[in-house]
Task: inverse folding
């Protein structure tokens, strides 16, 4: 199969907030593909697929889409609890598959997916750790590879969402895996990537509920801290928040033996700085969609290119399994108050 012959035929499962962003990118911005089918159990989402995006085939389930549409690949943007079974179903149907992070909420399911993928070596299976495709993070990684900061030994990274009075994420806390699996899994993957993928040994976490008391019933917090210790002495310090006042602030610092680098400090929307009666300030990005708009497009282009075989798959299922393994250890530590093995 070659990108010069015809577009890659893609179906998407899940058309919620992020699913619609992926669908828009696949429809309007990503090269060498056609979004020919979509599925959702939600009537309004199926209507949006038809009316807003002009997707020709719309189904109410993944099973119906796999049976009824002629597809080369499927993009899964569904609840995390469904990822493992749906990924296996797509692979066994002979399709390439893109899975939004995390791959699964337990290591056994991740490893089960890896085993199925091993039986389908010609099919691409890629997990959506979008920050690897952000130009700033990609430049930071390239600089580390070029020995710009010496040997990296400490990563400090955060995912901090703007405060939402309705606390919409509380409704999903029971199935999302909690703040560390839902938010910090990105920082976990970044830390492993920047540090050269060392093996994690143990983790400790603590947290507090500052604004959303209903999280207590899920043994979750709206602000959490974690330390991960890696083989060879490297460390990661992770912070996750649902309560930032000014906007969404994703930032990462990598410290090496001869220097350090930072990505995303200050959450600046652009390069405009205002000086007025409020002081000297800049506007901040409001959510992760705005911060990683370009990265989401580049990520999906990388998936399509990998399906065509014009570039290697940028990250492996084992990377996703390790992120889940570490995230689970952090979550156990939050609940136990003890250092937990990874």
Result:
């Amino acid at each position: 199969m070659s990108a010069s012959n015809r577009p890659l035929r893609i179906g998407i499962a899940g058309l919620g907030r992020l699913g619609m962003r992926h669908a828009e990118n696949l429809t309007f911005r990503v090269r060498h593909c056609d979004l020919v089918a979509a599925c959702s159990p939600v009537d309004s989402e199926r209507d949006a697929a038809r009316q807003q995006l002009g997707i020709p085939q719309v189904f109410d389930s993944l099973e119906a889409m796999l049976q009824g549409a002629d597809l080369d690949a499927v993009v899964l943007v569904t609840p995390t609890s469904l990822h493992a079974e749906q990924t296996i179903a797509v692979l066994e149907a002979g399709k390439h598959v893109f899975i939004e992070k995390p791959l699964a909420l337990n290591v056994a399911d991740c490893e089960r997916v890896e085993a199925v993928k091993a039986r389908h070596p010609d099919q691409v299976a890629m997990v959506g750790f979008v920050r690897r495709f952000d130009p700033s993070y990609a430049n930071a990684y390239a600089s580390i590879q070029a020995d710009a900061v010496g040997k990296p030994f400490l990563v400090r990274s955060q995912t901090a969402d703007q405060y939402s009075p309705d606390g919409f994420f509380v409704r999903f806390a029971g199935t999302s895996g909690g703040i560390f699996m839902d938010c910090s899994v990105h920082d976990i993957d970044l830390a492993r990537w920047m540090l050269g993928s060392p093996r994690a040994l143990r983790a400790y976490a603590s947290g507090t509920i500052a604004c959303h008391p209903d999280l207590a019933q899920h043994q979750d917090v709206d602000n959490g801290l974690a330390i991960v210790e890696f083989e060879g002495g490297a460390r990661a310090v992770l912070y996750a928040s649902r309560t930032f006042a000014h906007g969404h602030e994703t930032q990462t610092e990598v410290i090496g033996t001869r220097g350090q680098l930072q990505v995303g400090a200050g959450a600046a929307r652009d390069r405009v700085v205002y000086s007025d009666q409020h002081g000297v300030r800049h506007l901040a990005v409001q959510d992760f969609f705005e911060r990683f708009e370009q990265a989401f497009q580049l990520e999906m282009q990388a998936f399509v290119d990998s399906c065509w075989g014009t570039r290697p798959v940028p990250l492996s299922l084992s990377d996703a399994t390790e992120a889940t393994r570490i995230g689970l250890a952090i979550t156990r530590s939050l609940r136990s108050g003890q250092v937990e093995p990874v």
Notes: The mean pLDDT is 96. The two ends are 41 Å apart (CA to CA).
